[in-house]
């Protein structure tokens, strides 16, 4: 890369550090660190939710699918999220917000100990945290791949650079730093995306290429589904993404919790949904055009990086790379904050009695130490990502397939229709989904659709079925579900608003 490109990258990293340092002043206790004190405006909630939902995997693995298969990747990769988040704006956004405002919950898993029991909370916390280590490792590796193609930077050095910068601002500033950097990253990304579209349209003959390009691509590239990415695969992805992007990915639940009230949480969810339906098309247009501009690429995962370094002048390459970095840093920082919340609020107090009497200052220190430890661990695993099957294998085959068993008890446990489902149903749902995944992944030779669908459908069937056959309805469960489902701002009798503990 040119000196101007490196200058652009350094300016971007410097801006992220400054925002993190400024946000440090707004963090006074653990609740500020994890939920921004419930003061995040709806528009920032929506942008933060959107930016936290995808990473540089878009510019590597998904760009590779766009190069070989066309627009199908938009439909199952992003339109499915837009539909899922729209569903969540109706079902889940307000309930997550009331968990904070009415029950004093600061971690997405904190309410599970009362909704089910402590063992259920712990198995979901440990398994979800372990899965996130590999998920974030894949994101680090995707960024390192781009740095390697753009500038020849060693993979491990690329992981180290992005990890250290992200670690600084998310550890110092908590959720406020995450959200504010995500806003800045969204602006930078928008400028970079527009630059890429202008350059690509110029190479294709002008603005008319927006509607004439498609006839020049292979016919299969304009089909929403393919023989590999079928209609059933798309529908399964809508189901999986509905769970994943409304709280199954714990960091996204935090965005709903951080809004000042339920109205703001819903508006933020709707904004994020609209962005998922529209904005990926802007980002991916150059990827869809890549077969016309750089035919014969040996590794399709490198297609977007090759276009950038081939067609953009010095300075703009660095801008586009900064825009790509923004995705991964947004997702990883928000994931780290959520995992830290779960470990600090839900896991450590169960293991160590002294942690239950931590002061606000001690809890905040523990949260920051946990964040550092978690991010460093993901960076170590990222150095082995290629040995684990590569980016797409981890993101699609591992994370998407395993998200259902982890998120179904968490999300459905908030809804009144499932109040008969207790700890037995939750544990069986989680265990059955994981066993089903192990069978279809390691024992049976199944399609990718079956690999993704089997764990979530088995988990869903077990959770609902056991709730009907062997109900475990409790008064505590009724209080929690009724509290977070009620629109008024007053907690009902029998529950203390500040603690979330039944009186």
Layout of strands and helices, then pairs:
Elements: H1 3-24, H2 30-35, H3 42-51, H4 61-69, H5 72-91, H6 93-101, H7 112-115, H8 118-151, H9 155-204, H10 209-212, H11 231-248, H12 250-258, H13 262-293, H14 303-311, H15 316-351, H16 360-382, H17 391-412, H18 423-443, H19 448-469, H20 475-485
Description:
- It is a single chain.
- This protein has 503 residues and is mainly α.
- The chain is 74% helix and 0% strand.
- Helix 1 (3-24) packs parallel to helix 15 and helix 18 packs antiparallel against helix 19.
- The chain is globular, with a radius of gyration of 22 Å.
- It starts with a helix and ends in an 18-residue tail after the last helix.
- Mean pLDDT is 80; it is low at 490-503.
In a few lines, what is going on in this structure?
This protein has helices at residues 3-24, 30-35, 42-51, 61-69, 72-91, 93-101, 112-115, 118-151, 155-204, 209-212, 231-248, 250-258, 262-293, 303-311, 316-351, 360-382, 391-412, 423-443, 448-469, 475-485. Helix 8 crosses helix 9 (155-204) and helix 9 (155-204) packs across helix 13. The chain is mostly helical and 503 residues long.
- Give the CA-based shape: globular
Report, as a whole number of angstroms, the end-to-end distance: 62 Å
CA-atom Rg in angstroms: 22 Å
Number of helices: 20
Number of strands: 0
Secondary structure: helix percent: over 70%
Largest sheet, if any? none
SSE string: HHHHHHHHHHHHHHHHHHHH
Low-confidence stretches: 490-503
Structural class: mainly alpha
Q: Kindly report the average pLDDT value.
A: 80
Membrane topology: Multi-pass membrane protein
Keywords: Cell membrane, Ion transport, Membrane, Sodium, Sodium transport, Transmembrane, Transmembrane helix, Transport
Pfam families: SSF
Main location: membrane
